[in-house]
Amino acid sequence: MKETPSLSVAIAGSGGAGALTVGNLLLEAASAAGWQGLLTRTVGPQIRGGEAAALLRLAAGPVESMADRFDLLIGIDWLNANRFGPEIELGPDSLVIGDPRGGEKPAVIDKAGARFVEIPMKDMAKAITDGRPNMIALGIAGKLLGMSEELLSDLLQKQLAGKGQLAIESSRAGLKAGFAAAADLVLGLRLAPPKPTSAQRWLASGNETTALGAIRGGVRFAAAYPITPATEILEWLAPNLPRVNGTLLQAEDELAAINMIIGASFGGTPSLTATSGPGLSLMIEALGLATASEIPVVVIDVMRGGPSTGIPTKSEQADLNIAIYGLHGDAPHLVLAPQSVADCLFTTQWATYLAETLQTPAIVLSDQFVGQARAAIDRPADVAFIGRRTRATEFAEGYKRYALAAGGVSPMAIPGTPGGQYTADGLTHTERGIPTSSAADHQAQLDKRQDKLQQFVYGDHWATIEGDGDLAIITWGSLTGAAREAIGRAASDGVDVALIAPRLLSPIQPEAFAAALKGKSRVLIVEQTHGAQFYHYLRAHYDLPASVRVLNRPGPLTIKPGEIHRAIMEWSA
Amino acid sequence: MSIVDRQLACKPTDYKSDVKPVWCPGCGDYHVLMSFTRAFAQLGVPPEQIAVISGIGCSSRIPAYTSCYGFHGVHGRSLALAAGLKVTRPDLTVVVASGDGDGYSIGGNHFLHACRRNVDMTYVVMDNHIYGMTKGQPSPTTEPEFDTAMSPGGTGLRPFHPLVIALASGANFIARCFSGEPNQTADILLEAIKHPGFSFVEILSPCVTFRPDEKEWKNLVHPAPVAATNDPARAARRIMTDDGFNIGVLYRGDRRPYSPEICSETIDPSELEKEFEQ
After folding, report:
1. CA-to-CA distance for B174 and B232, rounded, in angstroms?
2. Contact list, A244 vs chain B (CB under 8 Å)
C-alpha cells in the first residue's frame, strides 16, 4: 500500500442524509489521531435541502487547499449528485462506493475510470433499530482511511450524548457494520503518519477564527444583517460577545448595521460587522463616512460569487475592486485578506488593531472557501495586537479633533469626556470638525487621512513571502495555500518558485513590493476572478517584471494546486 | 467650554456652540435649536454627557450648533448610528435630530425598526413638508396637490403619517410640537428625554423659503384637546382623526426599553478559544 502525504474523501447524499455529519466526525477523528485536515461542504444554491456533500482532505501536516482529485467517494445516495461532478474530480485510482438502491450512478464515475464498489448501506441500516445509512458510510470511510473504530465510537458517544442511549447504540451498530462491510476493501493508499507536534490542536472554521480574532483585537460590539456565507461569524459572536462584556445587535439591513457600528465606535467601543458582497455594496456609503469622520470600524466581507446575488454558497475573489475602489471621493482605508483558516484569526486581529490605531475603516476580504471551511489545525500563535486608539483626554480651548498632527493620527475625544466635545462629520471639515468648503481645508484633511495610512510601518505582516527563483507566484487570500502547495510540487520537479501573497492590499506597499520582486524576471498571478481584478490592481500600483502571466477564472470551482503547478511547469519547460 | 464654566452650566447658552447656523432667516429650526438647549439645561446633564446625532438636511445641521458631542452622518441613517452609540454607551443621553425627508423617506425603514427596538433615546423630526436643503422637492409629508419643480401639479400621493406609524411600530412616547413655541417644545423634549425607551417628537418647523405658506402654521396650531393616553388604540384613533396641528404629548407607553444581554460572569477573551480545543 502506497503512503501518501494527504488523502481526500467525499461523502455525498441528498440533503438530510447526514453526509456533512460524517465529514465532521471523520475530521474530528483524524484530528484526534494527530492529522490535520480541511473540510468544506458543497450544497446547492438553495442552502437548505437538495443535495449536499462533505469534501474532506486529511494530511500529515498543515493543509490549506483541496486536492486535485478525490481518493474516495462514498455516495449515500446519488440524488442530484451529477451536479457535484466538477467539484469531486475522480481519477482511475479513485475508489467509489455506492448503494445499489441509491439511484442512478452518476456518469462521471465511469468517465473517470474510477473503481466502483456497491455496498447496500440503506439495507444494512434497515437491519439496525433506528439505523441510518450515513453511519454505515462513516464506518466504511473510517476503515478505508485507517482510523480506529474505537476512536470513532467514542466520538459518537460524545456527539450524541444529548440524544439518548438508543441513538448512540444504533449509530455505533451502524459504524460497526460499516467497518465490517469494508473489511475486504483496499483503498491502495495509506495516509502518512502525522508529524509529531506539541501544539494544542484546534477544530474551527474560518468564520469562527475570524470572530475570535476580532474579539482578541478588542472588538466588543457587532451589528449585522444575516447573509450567506458570513452568518456563522455573527452566530458565533452572538453568544460569545456578552461573555466578554460585549453586545451584538441584529440590524434591519446592512445600512443600519454599518451605521450602528460607526455609532458604537464613536462612543469608544471597537466594533465590527460581517457581510458578503451584496451587503458590502450597501455599506459603501457609510464606509466613506467612517473614513471622513475618522471612526475605526472593521467590516468582514466573506466573498461569494457575484455580481448581484450571484452564487451565495460558493467562493470567489471578485469583491476586490469594490473593497479597494468602491468608496466615492478619495477615501483611503485599509483592506486586508486572510490566507487560511488559522490566518483568519491573525488577519482580523491585526485589522482591528490597525483600524483602531489609524482611526479608519478596515475591510477584511475573507471568502466562502476559507470562511466556511472547518479545519483541524495547530493552535495559532498568540499575537500582541490589541486595538488602542489614541484618545484625547486633556483639552485646550477649542479642541481640534481633526488636528493636522504628525503622522496624521489626531487624538480622539470619546463622548463623556469633559471639554472634548466635537461633531464628527462626513462633510469636509476644519481641524475642529466644523463644516467647510475651503479648498485648503479639503486638501489638508485629505492629506491627513492619506498620510496616516501611508506613513504607518506595517512590518513583515503585510505579505507572505517565501522561496527563491526568478519566477514568483503572486496571489492573495484563500488561494495562498493552493499556490504554496503547487510551489512545493514544482520544487520536487526541480523548479524553484517564490511566493508573494499580500495580506495588506490597501494601502499599497510599493517599497516592500519592490523588495519582494527583486531578482524576479517572471511573475504568475493567480486569482479567482473573471475579470483578472488582482492582475489589474497589481498593474496599476506596482512595477512588475516584463514577463507576466495570469491564471484567473471565476468561481465557484476553486483553483486547485494542480492547475497552478501545471502553469508553473508549462512556463518552466 | 472649560471645566470652570461647566460647573456653572445648566444655562441654555452653555449648550450652544459658537458655530453660526446656515439656516435661512426665519427658519423654524432656529427655534428648535433654542428648545434643544433649553431642554438640556433643564435636564441638568453636562454637555459632554449628551450626544446629538443626525443625518443630512437642514435639520441635521443641529449637532454642530450645540456644545454637546455630535455626529453629522449620512442621509437617513441617524437612528442606526444613534442605536449603536446608546446600546454601547447607556450612560450617555442620546438625541437624534432629523427632517421629514431624512427621517421618513430615505430613513423610513430605520424609523420603523427604531420604534420596534425601543432603545432609550429621543428622536426629533423637524417636519416642514419639503426638502429644503435641495431647494424644494416634495417629501413624504408634502400635501398631494403641492406644486414643485419635481412634481408639477403635485405628487397626488397620500402624505405619510409619522405619528401613527411610530405608534404602530412601537414607539414608547409620541408628541407633536410647533417650533414657534420654544418653551413648550423644550418642556416636551425634556419629558421625551426622560421617558424610558424610544420617544418620538415631531416638531412642525416651517420652511419660510420654499413653503412661505407655512408661516400660517402659527395660526393653525392648537393644544391637543385631550390628555395623553397610554392606550395605543385610543391614541391611534385620536392621531388619525386630528387635523395635524394638535400640539402636546399624545401617547406615553410603558414598554420596557431595550437593554443588551448581560452575562453575570464575564470571562477573559482567551477563555473563548476553549471551544476550539480538542
Report:
1. 11
2. 266-269, 272
Contact across the interface for B72 and A424, Cβ inside 8 Å: yes
Cis preceding linkage at A507, omega within 30: yes
**Predicted confidence (pLDDT) per residue in A120-135, tens digit:** 999 999 999 999 999 9
Do the Cβ atoms of A423 and B73 come within 8 Å?
A: no
* The dihedral sign for the CA sequence A38, A569, A510, A458: positive
Grid cell, residue A480, equals: 495562498
Do B87 and B127 contact (CB within 8 A), yes or no? no
Task: Quick: pLDDT tens for A238-247.
Answer: 999 999 999 9
SS3 B66: strand
Pull the grid cell for residue B154.
Answer: 403635485
**Band of residue A478 on the pLDDT scale cut at 50, 70, 90:** very high
- In total, chain B counts a number of residues equal to 278
For A292, the closest chain B residue by CA position comes to B73
Q: Which amino acid is at A205?
A: S
Note whether A471 and A524 are within 8 A (CB): yes
Using DSSP bridges, classify how beta strands A471-474 and A497-502 pair: parallel, antiparallel or unpaired.
parallel
Residue A300, classed as helix, strand or coil, is strand
A215:B272 CB<8 A = yes
10 Å CB burial of residue A271 (0-12, 13-18, 19+) is: buried
- Asked whether A334 and A453 are in contact (CB, 8 A), the reply is yes
- A186 close to A26: Cβ distance less than 8 angstroms: no
Shortest alpha-carbon distance between residue A366 and chain B (Å):
20
Are B1 and A256 in contact (CB < 8 Å)? no
b (16+ CB within 10 A) / e for A15-43: bebbbbbbbbbbbbbbbbbebbbbbbbbb
Total-model pTM: 0.96
Parallel/antiparallel/unpaired status of strands A504-506 and A334-336: antiparallel
SS (H, E, C) A513-562: HHHHHCCCCEEEEEECCCCCHHHHHHHHHCCCCCEEEEEECCCCCCCCHH
Cell 487570500, located at residue: A477
For B116, other C-beta atoms within 10 Å of its C-beta total: 16
pLDDT, average across residues A412-428: 97
Q: In a 3-state reduction of DSSP, which class is residue A24?
A: helix
